[in-house]
Specification:
CATH class of the largest domain: Alpha Beta
CATH topology of the largest domain: Rossmann fold
Order of helices and strands: EHEHEHEHEHEEEEHEHHEE
CATH superfamily of the largest domain: Response regulator
Mean pLDDT: 88
Strand order of the largest sheet: 2-1-3-4-5
Oligomer: single chain
Radius of gyration: 19 Å
Strand content: 15-25%
């Protein structure tokens, strides 16, 4: 199973380093940045599973980053992290779209427990049945149908299609797909993705159906209508 990816945003280098090392040791893939602008760029390209976001940031502050992240993804787990512990500050963070709020200084064990809780909520909330045009995927039964016919997939082909469908109409880099589906760092010369995409296309288009998995030259793949 692929690692959960956590985006950590804090302009204090010592705090950022502590969280990055603690989360990595706990088994998460971590992106760590110091500004709101970097956070928005990384979230757009790496699609994190959860965000730990400091309130006080240079440039675009944490509240605005939270609002923009929430506007782009209503289900993304976001935890605000700040030295401000007053009730009005906590309310402002929650109203901006945060799911949780942790006040500095904090214990690393509590941070990790809160991250686990956020990810559990997201997993429970995710629907088991995905639909895109005439394609239906049921993650509970691991069954795939195209225009009413059963499509027989290998376990990894199913995982790849599941990931593409959960990010339909997004352009996903080969590096990101490899990390999220195969659960390890991309080596740069692996053709695993290309082979699995080719086989998926053959099975999904076996009766002349339109192509749904498109190659984005120089970047990766995208599940979208022609």
């Amino acid at each position: 199973m692929a690692q959960s990816r956590i985006l950590v945003v804090d302009d204090e280098p010592e705090v950022l380093s502590l969280m990055r090392r603690g989360l990595a040791y706990a088994g998460y893939s971590v992106d760590a940045v110091e500004t709101g602008e970097e956070a928005l760029n990384v979230a757009l390209t790496h699609h994190p599973d959860a965000v730990i976001l400091d309130l006080m940031l240079p440039g675009i502050d944490g509240l605005e980053v939270c609002r923009r992240l929430r506007a782009g993804d209503a289900t993304l787990p976001i935890m605000m992290l700040t030295a401000r512990g007053r009730v009005p500050d906590r309310v402002a963070g929650l109203d901006a779209g945060a799911d949780d709020y942790l006040v500095k200084p904090f214990a690393l064990d509590e941070l990790l427990a809160r991250v686990r809780a956020l990810l559990r909520r997201t997993t429970v909330a995710e629907t088991s049945t995905l639909r895109f045009t005439d394609l239906v995927l049921d993650s509970a039964t691991r069954r795939v149908e195209r225009n009413g016919r059963l499509v027989d997939l290998t376990p990894k082909e199913f995982d790849l299609l599941d990931y593409l469908m959960r990010h339909a109409n997004q352009v996903l880099s080969r590096e990101l797909i490899f990390t999220r589906v195969w659960g390890s760092e991309f080596l740069g010369d692996s053709n695993l993705i290309d082979v699995h995409v080719m086989r998926l296309r053959e099975k999904l288009e076996a009766q002349g159906e339109q192509r749904l998995i498109h190659t984005i030259r120089g970047v990766g793949y995208s599940l979208r209508e022609a």
